[in-house]
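Dear colleague,

Thank you for sharing your sequence with our group. We've completed the structure prediction you requested, and as agreed, I am returning the results in plain text so they can be pasted directly into your records. Please verify that the sequence below matches your submission; if there's any discrepancy, let me know and we will rerun it promptly.
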Amino acid sequence: MSSRTLPLLFINLGGEMLYILDQRLRAQNIPADKAKKVMNDIITTMFNKKFLEELFKPQELYSKKALRTVFDRLAHASIMRLNQASMDKLYDLMTMAFKYQVLLCPRPKDILLVSFNHMDAIKDFVKDTPSILSQVDETYQQLIEMYTPMCSGEFQLIRQTLLIFFQDMHIRVSIFLKDKVQNSNGRFVLPISGPVPHGTQVPGLIRMFSCTGEEVNRLKFTNGGNYTAATREGSFEIFGDRVTKLGTNMYSVSRPVETHMSGTSKNSAQNTKQVNAAPNPLAKEELNLLAKLMGRLEDPNPGNTDSGFRVNLFATDEEEEEALISRPDELSYGVIKIQATKDLQANAELAKIMGEFTVSGDQSPSASSKGDDLLAMMDGL
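Please find the predicted structure tokens below.
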């Protein structure tokens, strides 16, 4: 497992979330000033300096429940509200889109280009707001400094860590199904054609060398695909052509997007529940860090008196209600609704999440003290 995976996971999922919300805000004809406020508030919170300092520290990935909780909080960082079914759908779309992008990356290092595509789009969302733009530019620099010196092996470890995180997620998405890149069981179809990864050659030739390094024979074989020569490498700088389209906005052309549970996902949901119930020796540390991170996600406009509005990711309210009823309990999480003033419901939700973590072994007095500190931090939210 790579300890450098979390920033890439967070930024790419955050980018997908912004694509989806932008599309829904337009589809529901939300006034431009309110839509802009929502996007600005979420991006401001997402790129909060202290929050990112914690995020970029070497650490293991959060559990799925902890990460989902962070994105629940992030999605409600402004005046927009989502019902639980819409939040479930939003998170499903985010995770499946990024899973697809990770699977299709020609090289493990191209995950960084996907991240830059998301960053480029985020930068475009706030191009008219210099204060937020500077936060985004600072994150670009952090990404470049941390990831560009990495070797291929380190990127392969990051890719494997991400795929392990996503392996039980098989939500069917209408866009992917219509484009025939996803099967009815929720698994993706990997292409056997197109350009080969940068720095490689089209398969079909075996060359044999002598012990002195001299080529002595060549054998050709059928590669079973329709491959072409590699394209030029994308830019890993702040400005530049990323070449790959992975990580760009697939909702820019308006199409209805639906999600459906596959049979595989329903079965794996039960397995996930059993895994989550197992004692986790890192639970206390993870929860302390989560509390610290969530403490950074304050309402950017605590004195805001604007009335909130609800965004529905379904075509109708009836569809939203039906989706909530039909979704397996194991894959549904309570949505934390953040108000302009701190409310008791958020504390109750956090306390519930904390109660679902179990720690094996005896607790020392110092460990107990840490737990008390955590409760105090949560009470202060």
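Summary note from our side: Residues 268-281, 334-344, 357-381 have pLDDT under 50 and may be disordered.

Kind regards,
the structure core
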